[in-house]
Amino acid sequence: MSTATQSLRPWVDRVRRGWRASPLPGFLGWWGGELRGMLPPRWRGWFGSGADWHLLQHAGALWSLRRSGYGDVLASWDDGADMTTDGVRVPPVALGAALHRVDREDLRLALLLPPAVVLRRTLALPLAARDNLLQVAGFEMDRQTPFGVAQVYYAARELGPPAAPGRFNAELVVVTRDTLDPLLARLRAQGIAVDAVDLAVGDGRLGVNLLPPEQVPHRARPRRRLNLILAAACVLLLALVLGQWLHNRQVALAQMQAEVEAMRGEAQQVAALRQQLQDNAGAAGFLAQRKKNTVAMLSLLQDVTARLPDSAWLERFSVDNTGQVGFQGQSQQAAKLLDALKDSKLITDASFQGSIQPDPTTGKERFYLTARVNQPKPPTTTPAAGGSAP
Question: Cα 365 to chain center, whole Å?
Answer without folding.
Answer: 101
